[in-house]
Amino acid sequence: MQDNPVLNFLAERRSVMARNMSDPGPDPNALKTLLSIATRVPDHGKLTPWRLVVIQDDDRKELGDIAAQELIVANAEPNAVEAARDQFSRAPCIVAVLACPRAHPKIPHSEQLYSAGAVCMMLVTAARAAGFAAQWLTGAAAYNSKVLARLGGGAEDEIAGFIYLGSCAEKPAERARPELEEVACFGLPEMSAT
Length: 194
Description:
The protein has helices at about 5-10, 30-40, 60-75, 80-85, 110-130, 145-150, 180-185, and strands spanning about 50-55, 95-100, 135, 160-165. The chain is an alpha+beta fold. It has a domain at about 15-55 and about 85-170: NADH Oxidase (3-Layer(aba) Sandwich), CATH 3.40.109. About 30% of the residues are buried.
């Protein structure tokens, strides 16, 4: 498996921090390709329990202003307000992934949320494979009802993540990863005595 370029890429996959991104982001054709790939995820029952909203240009400022307004109302520190206002300006393109679960007699709510999470991860991976910088973020804006409403989300929807897309001049540094033995169990774990 050592000579498999896909596995080699996945073994070294690393997010690029949004604050280290710059222009250009994906052009419209590349973006459509990336979004099409991102939606090729497990989707039990074919419910498509997610929606994608592309945020570019002046929409980034508008969404940042909405996020900042919530903090102003909450009497947050001025630095926090400015950070909220500028958060969507860190990359040329952000894709908001909305989890839009539907009531279903056989498919649990949680499976639909996991499907939306899979869209986020698939988009980050596809963008990196295409040579773009990518990072999956949430933050306070992901839990802001006015931000959700402005993205077209309904009362039962959630923001699974904001996927920041752009360019990066240098390869991101590796970060510490857990040893496989710390997080994986080969076989059923021992039962604790109770």
